[in-house]
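Posting for a labmate who doesn't have an account.
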Amino acid sequence: MSSCVSDLYSATFGRLFTLWYGFVMRLIDEMGLREVRREVLGEAVGRTLDVGTGTGANLPLYPDEVSLVLAEPDEHMLKVLRQKLSEDPNRHIELVQAPAEKLPFETSSFDCVVYTMVLCTIPDPEAALVEVARVLRPGGRLLFLEHVRSEDPGFARLQDRWQRVWRFLADGCNCNRDSLAAIESSPLTLESVRRGRMPMAPLIIKPLVYGSAVLPA
């Protein structure tokens, strides 16, 4: 495949995936996930960084007093975000294009970092969590909501079998990634965690965890 054809394919797939992702997440949110998001994001304070913002499902759920910064690497997602931000000119929100593993912010510059459905797709989650620890102030918190590898060995094997297919269909998402273990082995200290099930989602991404981790002072 020539580079021109490859670039066209990537651009077309990227646009289609962005539309599909936004549509599917709206349905899942309406079936109950939005309330879990609201619970997690309600704990955001001060200067908050939302990493891998996607199509912006989190935006209306943050407390009004939060100073919000968005970091999203995908150009197609960024177009959707810019449109959403332009529709609410009364609220100042900073938007940057950046990967989770290399954030363009100063050390100790945020009170809070948020991951929602992000660690499953980040190419290097360990490096991304080191970046979280770098940009958080001491005592700052990571708030997370992630689908994860099942605790049930049989179900986890099913996720392993479907991983390659799902990764292709879902633009790099790993249905079998143990994101909670990645947080636990990071420089952060796990503070709270709850488990649940993602509503109206494919079986292999139903196991859900959400909670917080803190950067030791």
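Reply:
Got it, the structure tokens are right above this. Residues 2-9 have pLDDT under 50 and may be disordered.
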